[in-house]
TrEMBL record:
Protein name: ATP-binding cassette domain-containing protein
Keywords: ATP-binding, Cell membrane, Membrane, Nucleotide-binding
Annotated source species: Duganella dendranthematis
Domain ABC transporter, first and last residues per copy: 5-206
Matches recorded under Pfam families: ABC_tran (PF00005)
Recorded superkingdom: Bacteria
Residue ranges the record marks as coiled coil: none
Length: 206
């Protein structure tokens, strides 16, 4: 079986080239100083920024998959996720509701928050709700940019437990984090970006 994701010579005028592989049920963490290119890498992987090189998903080249379908399967959650409808609940399609209802208590979120204006939610509530929104899309690869940056320790622990569970169930995760402890807890392999160059540490498969 091919790896979940094969990245070959991925680059843009701003970053790369990057080459690496990610298996199903594996988590790679990315750390590095501010401005080192972590978000640029995630944006190239989900094809939001112009780039060259090749990426294969379960052996299928990106060029054979239309861009919206690619972004649904290789899903990017930015550090400050966008909301385009008035309430958080309005962002879920009917088919996603059972999964959303299962995930809310795992991140200590009350279902009542779904009806609140997004702007009324706290930063941490929005961040956890965004993760639920991403997981409810059931992506094969999730690209998470600092998903616990705004959270208190209890919410960080709940988020890490959920991500651990999802990866154990087969999700492939690329996680940008500034937390060494979080990288050690969740990551099977670790990348460091410095001056937009990639350094890989650890090669264990899950
Ligand atoms: N479209 C663009 N055009 C030119 N420069 C850009 C563009 N997007 C990002 N940059 C620059 O590329 C560098 C890397 O940006 P990036 O957002 O990937 O950093 P980062 O490692 O994610 O940082 P942080 O930890 O602060 O989020 C930064 O210096 C940024 O200003």
């Amino acid at each position: 079986m091919p790896p979940r994701l094969q990245v070959r010579q991925l680059q843009s005028p701003l970053a790369g080239p990057y080459s690496f592989e990610l298996a199903a049920g594996q988590c790679i963490t990315i750390s590095g100083p501010s401005g080192s290119g972590k978000s640029l890498l995630l944006r190239m992987l989900c094809d939001l920024d112009p780039n060259t090189g090749e990426i294969l998903l379960d052996g299928a080249p990106r060029s054979s998959i239309n861009p919206p379908a690619w972004r649904a399967q290789v899903l990017y959650q930015p550090a400050e996720p966008a909301w385009w409808l008035p309430t958080a609940g309005a962002h879920f399609r009917p088919g996603q509701i059972p999964r959303m209802q299962e995930l809310l208590p795992q991140l200590n979120l009350s279902p009542q928050l779904l009806e609140h204006e997004v702007s009324r939610l706290s930063t941490g509530e929005r961040q956890r709700m965004a993760l639920i929104r991403s997981l409810a899309c059931n992506p094969k690869v999730l690209l998470l940019d600092e998903p616990t940056a705004a959270l208190d320790p209890e919410s960080v622990a709940a988020t890490e437990a959920l991500l651990h569970q999802e990866v154990a169930n087969g999700l492939s995760l690329i996680l940008v984090t500034h937390s060494e402890a979080q990288a050690q807890t969740l990551g099977h392999r670790h990348m460091t970006l410095r001056d937009r160059q990639l350094h890989m540490h650890g090669g264990a498969t899950p």
